[in-house]
Amino acid sequence: MMNADPHAPRTVVPIDPALLIAEAFDQAQVTEIRHSVTSCAHASGLAGQRLDDFVLAINELITNAVRHGGGRGWLRLWSESGSLVCEVTDRGRGISPQRLGDRSRPTPDTAGGWGLWLARELTDAMEVVTSAAGTTVRVTTAVTTPNHTPR
Q1: What is the pLDDT of residue 131?
Q2: 128 touches 95 (CB < 8 A)
Q3: Under a CB-based contact definition with an 8 Å cutoff, are residues 143 and 44 in contact?
Q4: What is the pLDDT, as a whole number, of residue 101?
Q5: Which residues of 48-79 are buried (b: 16+ CB within 10 A; e: fewer)?
Q6: Residue 100 has what pLDDT?
Q7: Which tens digits make up the pLDDT trace of 45-86?
Q8: Can you give the pLDDT at residue 3?
Q9: Are 81 and 140 in contact (CB under 8 A)?
Q10: Which residues of the chain have pLDDT under 50?
Q11: What pLDDT score was predicted for residue 146?
Q12: How many angstroms separate the CA atoms of 70 and 5, rounded?
């Protein structure tokens, strides 16, 4: 099965054992991608609530890419300096500055708008680059090991 998309954003990534996943996805692959992220994150040392939180954050980002970003996206997951980093990119119309700047928790009766808020809350760091050509969201979570305590 080939997930290559000739319209995928081109990123020069050196062949690096730290790169765990680099996949295009659409609605049909959301569950498969989430399972791949879970397996790779667990194998990289995330466990328990931190693993669950990281996977939920990424699930929100890939779901947003499908719903609001043109129906498809691209996910990269890698390890870097004791952390796991996941980047989700789409070709949607971007996120408005007002929506991006609103860091308040959505009200309980809000049907949408939880994705970015949850991703920010459930990870150690989140960066967003957005324009009319699409959006890239990068989340980072420290891997807890006996010799490493996250900040």
Answers
A1: 92
A2: yes
A3: yes
A4: 76
A5: eebbebbbbbbbbbbbbbbebbeebbbbbbbb
A6: 79
A7: 999 999 999 999 999 999 999 999 999 999 999 999 899 999
A8: 47
A9: no
A10: 1-4, 13, 146-151
A11: 47
A12: 14
pTM for the structure as a whole: 0.81
Strands of the sheet with 134-142, listed across from one edge: 19-26, 72-80, 83-90, 134-142, 125-131
pLDDT of residue 16: 62
C-alpha–C-alpha distance, residues 79 and 115, integer Å: 23
Cα separation, 138 vs 93, whole angstroms: 18
Q: What is the pLDDT of residue 24?
A: 95
Please give the radius of gyration of the chain, using alpha carbons only, rounded to the nearest integer.
Answer: 15
Q: Answer whether 92's CB lies under 8 Å from 68's CB.
A: yes
Give the span between the Cα atoms of 21 and 33, in whole angstroms.
9
Give the separation between CA 121 and CA 118, rounded to whole angstroms: 5
Closest among 149, 121, 151 to 139, alpha carbons compared: 121
**Polymer length in residues for the chain:** 151
Q: What span, in angstroms and rounded, lies between the C-alpha atoms of 43 and 5?
A: 28
Q: Which two tokens stand for residue 77?
A: 């997951």
Three-state secondary-structure class, residue 26: strand
Phi, psi torsion values for 127, nearest 5 degrees: -125, 140
